[in-house]
Design a protein that fits this description.
Layout lengths: L10 H15 L11 H11 L4 H14 L3 H5 L3 H8 L6 H16 L8 H5 L6 H10 L10 H10 L9 H14 L5 H14 L18 H5 L15 E11 L5 E5 L10 E2 L2 E3 L8 H9 L4 E12 L3 E11 L10 E4 L11 H4 L9
Parallel strand pairs: 1-6
Antiparallel strand pairs: 1-4, 2-3, 2-7, 5-6
Helix pairs in contact: 1-11, 2-3, 2-8, 8-11, 9-11
The structure holds iron/sulfur cluster (SF4).
């Protein structure tokens, strides 16, 4: 921890300026309507790696369908994934539902209001735990994400690399020092809101900033140099040929992904690893892999999908088959209309435009 970080910071005045600004400038967001810990939890999980504007309609639909924790606990996982379709990072949805089920069975449906029990739930890391405890239960617990690290690295002039996990822990210590005990909810949300609206990654609007007079980076004119963040490793590119295989009833083959790992339990059109299987061997490979005889017909298009650690380079092809049923448990035939009932990842949803209605 950087001991000099708090030199010359008037903490009560910083808290006051931040909270005051937050109270009069906070956006009217659907999850801010009440402090129901279940709703705060859902919103915080949705907001991870996803922009507020994207989350708003998802959150509204999700809460309409699962208004209480018990509704989500009792829901079918495929339906939950369907509601999450398009938001990405689907393990968030699975973990959320598993954790909610645990709260329903172990805690009679009451979200635990202490760090130990809350932090032991699936998918509830230090950030989510801090967000729920501070926002829903008004406890002075840090909730540190990239936004918060950016703002505080500037205010306190911290030059450590925020990509390092140990530095994130140090930021939790800084928040412990700074957080308001009277209104920790507004304090944490105020920093998040400031990072979203004013202290943005590029060109922060220091002239409009409510904590400008406390900000060391502004005083030295180095706000755009902070935070220091080492570049993540480049994602590995993996090419696939995606096959839209249809039979004479205009039914398409879809495949359920495995229970574990990337996009677990979602559906997709069959994907052939193109780095290992050349175009000439594609039909053979499908027969060996799924016991399905196909004939490639037409190239339909290309698209790219970027995950945090890999990039899928997808070439989409249509193929015909004479088969009317399948013997491999991973795949099934579905009609054009039935496709709507299955949860697909974003990249495969984009391919729906190539699916023929008849
Ligand atoms: Fe961020 Fe500028 Fe405000 Fe400092 S003064 S917190 S750099 S917006």
């Amino acid at each position: 921890m950087n001991d000099k970080a708090f030199h010359n910071i008037d903490i009560p005045s910083f808290q006051h300026d931040l909270i005051d600004w937050y109270q009069s400038n906070k956006r009217d967001l659907p999850w801010r309507k009440d402090q129901d810990p279940y709703k705060v939890w859902v919103s915080e999980i949705m907001l991870q790696q996803t922009k507020v504007d994207t989350v708003i309609p998802y959150f509204k639909r999700f809460i309409e369908k699962y208004p209480t924790l018990f509704d989500l606990a009792n829901a079918d996982q495929q339906d939950v994934l369907k509601m999450w379709e398009g938001l990405g990072y689907y393990s968030r949805a699975r973990n959320l539902q598993n954790a909610v089920r645990e709260v329903a069975s172990e805690y009679e449906g009451v979200v635990p209001a202490n760090e130990k029990e809350l932090g032991s739930l699936k998918g509830v890391g230090p950030y989510t735990k801090g967000a729920i405890l501070s926002i829903a239960f008004n406890q002075p617990v840090p909730a540190v994400d990239g936004n918060v690290m950016r703002v505080l690295s500037r205010v306190l002039k911290i030059e450590d690399d925020i990509a390092q996990p140990k530095v994130k822990k140090e930021f939790e210590t800084y928040v412990h020092e700074l957080i308001s005990n009277e209104d920790p909810s507004s304090f944490n949300q105020g920093i998040m809101e400031l990072g979203a609206l004013v202290c943005t990654p590029k060109s922060p609007m220091c002239m409009l900033c409510p904590v400008q007079e406390h900000c060391k980076a502004f005083a030295e004119g180095i706000e755009e140099d902070l935070p220091v963040k080492s570049k993540a490793k480049k994602q590995k590119k993996i090419p696939y040929v995606v096959l839209l295989i249809r039979n004479k009833h205009n039914q398409y083959v879809i495949e359920k992904r495995p229970d574990e790992g990337l996009l677990a339990n979602l559906y997709q059109f069959p994907m052939v690893p193109a780095a290992e299987i050349g175009m000439d061997h594609m039909e053979n490979w499908i027969q060996m892999e799924y016991g399905l005889k196909i004939k490639l017909t037409e190239k339909k298009g290309k698209l790219k999908h970027v995950f945090s650690h890999i990039i899928w380079q997808l070439e989409i092809m249509e193929a015909d088959t004479d088969a009317e049923e399948v013997n491999d448990g991973r795949i099934r035939f579905v009609s054009h209309d039935e496709l709507r009932d299955f949860p697909f990842p974003v990249s495969h949803q984009k391919m729906m435009k190539y699916v023929r209605e008849s």
